[in-house]
Amino acid sequence: MELLIDKVNPDRKEILKNLMTLHLHDLSEFIDNISLNSNNGLFEFDVLDWFFEKEGLTPFFINLNGEPVGFILLQSGPYSNQEYADYVLNSFFIIKNQRRKGIGKSACNKFFEMYPGRYAIGQAQTNIPAVKFWRNVYESYGVNPYEKEEIEDGIKMVYQYFKTHSSLR
Predict the structure, then answer these.
(1) In the β-sheet with 67-76, what is the strand arrangement from edge to edge?
(2) Is-above-0.85 flag for pTM?
(3) What pLDDT is recorded for position 81?
């Protein structure tokens, strides 16, 4: 199994857009204000283009044996709260047939080594599978994050703040 995390090139943006549709479909189970675009029947992330246009917003594919099985959207610089975090994980997604195989956890650990620093990662409180997933990631990575409940765009969120191992040295 070869697991790689690569920046998404603009010529592969359509693949990311399609994966984002799946991600938003999954999230719509937990977040009421995520809805279909009635004109095309798709879930759409209205600021996806920003991740190809703005410094500090970076899209990554999670590739397994050369094929995308998920993605990470990373916020940094002016798109993170520099007082508390160098990086904010905007989105993290693994396609359903690759879940519960350790791929997501391995991808996170690899990503944290690639981009050491202070992180903020949030989940909707109602998204219990995501909250459990991230707690398992932190345990496997060996960090004990500070957790804080916040309201973001009317959604009750739980955020975890932590430093990667590489940034602790």
Answers:
(1) 3-7, 57-64, 67-76, 87-94, 118-124, 155-163, 146-152
(2) yes
(3) 80
